[in-house]
Amino acid sequence: MGRGPESAVLAGDFVVQNLDTAELQRQAAALYRRVFGYRNPDVGLSPPLLTGLLRNGGSAVGAVAADGTLLGFAYGMRGGDEEGMYHYSQAAVVAPESQGLGLGRRLKQAQAAVARDTGMRFMRWSYDPLISRNAHFNLDVLGASGRWYVDDFYLHERSDRVVVEWDLERPPAPAAPPGPNPPVTRADWGRGQQRGAHGWLALPTDPTLLDPAEDAAVRAAVRAGFHEFLARGLVARSCRPVSAETSVYWFAPPTDDRSRT
Questions:
Q1: Which CATH architecture has domain 9-167?
Q2: 151-175: b or e for each residue (b if 16 or more CB lie within 10 Å)?
Q3: Residue ranges of the chain with pLDDT lower than 50?
Q4: Does the chain have fewer CB atoms within 10 Å around its N or its C terminus?
Q5: Domain coordinates of the chain in residue numbers?
């Protein structure tokens, strides 16, 4: 049985707790569709799935306001591959009006508690490589590493994902690039640069400003850049803005202990 945050933890005007009531699960399903803008009735989040996760070592945690309103939630499950077992976070969803309150970090910490309680050392999840604010949160704020790049993750175009891994036994210590970032401009978007054992890859800070042709070109270039650096044995360690229109990924050799003993 997934244990997680059995007693809610106070955090300002909300608490973080398991989604263990029918009402919270109903709100989670509605919030999921609202945040992602889904209109197709075939796409959604199943409340019975959340119950199944809670009863079988997965996570389904939410940030709940004092009046019972669900402000955000995250859910995930145990996974495994040739490297061992891990907890996979499928999604973290925060209502637009509740962003900026630290909910994303608190939800990930709650999932980490579930993972530890079920014997997991590592967490993984994926994100859109062109959403630089998410990249910054995952890499710089939480200290996860971008270890894999999956083309068409969800089996359709514009669904490439970076898969990160978070070592739950290491204290959070986000990495800092060595020295200043190389000078980059809009012309460098998707163009990788390497200095010794380190690499940099520029991207637009706000991809929503791109027209469809620009978006397709930048996505293809970022895809190629990620594959190139990962093939060299590097991992994505940071993503930070260098100007109003440009952000930069920093790649470096992995430093985490891959032993699961």
A1: 3-Layer(aba) Sandwich (3.40)
A2: eebeeeeeebbbbbbbbbeeeeeee
A3: 1-4, 6-11, 259-261
A4: C
A5: 9-167, 186-252
